Amino acid sequence: QAQLVESGGGLVPPGGSLRLSCAASGSPFDNYAIAWFRQAPGKEREFVARIRWSSGATYYVDSVKGRFTISRDNAKNTVYLQMNSLKPEDTAVYYCAAKQAAVGSYDYWGQGTQVTVSS
Fold this sequence. Notes:
- By secondary structure, the protein is mainly β.
- It is 0% helix and 52% strand.
- The chain is built from no helices and 11 strands.
């Protein structure tokens, strides 16, 4: 059973950068997709970015393309979300999630890490 733990959230000024980490354990991840979601205050949870563990193929929501980069470190079993040019509207709790690539829903979730973009 996969277990995910997020870290790296915090308070940053607009235009700043932050890197989130998702430490994965408990299962082999050869055929998994790992994703970042976020939930802003008063809003529904939304998809942010996804990476396929084996191939490294990525996908991003339009609002973060060119600003965010999802990556993985196989040796550390960790997925990262590098966030640059942060905007106040990026403020949210960010969650790491995992699923087998052929499965529609994300079955494994971390507890979340708060990102606040404010001057």
